[in-house]
């Protein structure tokens, strides 16, 4: 395992930047260990919903966690607004960095992640294989 600290900059798409970084590092499996920062737009898919909800404003990114594979990211986050109200869910594309995002990735070069249909859940789920 190799750790990779990164900083994302204003106007970057959080999820797309992490997916691109995985490809750039030529790794097929990674986990987001920690993530903090701020967002100007949050695209959050709440539990049981099929589409993300766009939220606009000044948000603190309190937590970010998930897995990264060449098939895409599975990320969850919590954010707080200017009144300190906290919400969270699945981080969809379109989460835009406001000032910064400081993220620690754990790159797993000995593994390969894919997302494949799962009969039990009806969704594409993580499949873990040796590299």
From TrEMBL:
Which UniProt keywords are listed? DNA-binding
The answer, when asked if DNA-binding is one of the entry's keywords, is yes
GO molecular function term, any single one: DNA binding
Name of this protein: DNA-binding protein
Q: Which domain of life is it from?
A: Bacteria
* Pfam annotation, one family: PCC
Q: Report the SUPFAM superfamilies cross-referenced here.
A: AF0104/ALDC/Ptd012-like
Give residue ranges for domain PPC.
1-129
Q: Which Gene3D superfamilies match?
A: Hypothetical protein, similar to alpha- acetolactate decarboxylase, domain 2
Organism, as annotated: Massilia phyllostachyos
Q: List the InterPro entries.
A: PPC_dom
């Amino acid at each position: 395992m190799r750790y990779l600290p990164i900083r994302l900059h204003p106007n970057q798409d959080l999820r797309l930047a992490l997916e691109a970084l995985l490809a750039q590092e030529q790794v097929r499996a990674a986990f987001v260990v920690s993530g903090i920062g701020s967002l100007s737009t949050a695209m959050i898919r709440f539990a049981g919903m099929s589409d993300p909800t766009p939220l606009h404003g000044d948000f603190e990114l309190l937590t970010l966690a998930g897995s990264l594979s060449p098939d895409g990211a599975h990320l969850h986050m919590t954010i707080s607004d200017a009144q300190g109200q906290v919400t969270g869910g699945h981080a969809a594309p379109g989460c835009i960095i406001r000032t910064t995002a400081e993220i620690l990735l754990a790159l797993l070069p000995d593994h390969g992640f894919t997302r494949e249909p799962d009969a039990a859940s009806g969704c594409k789920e993580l499949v873990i294989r040796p590299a």
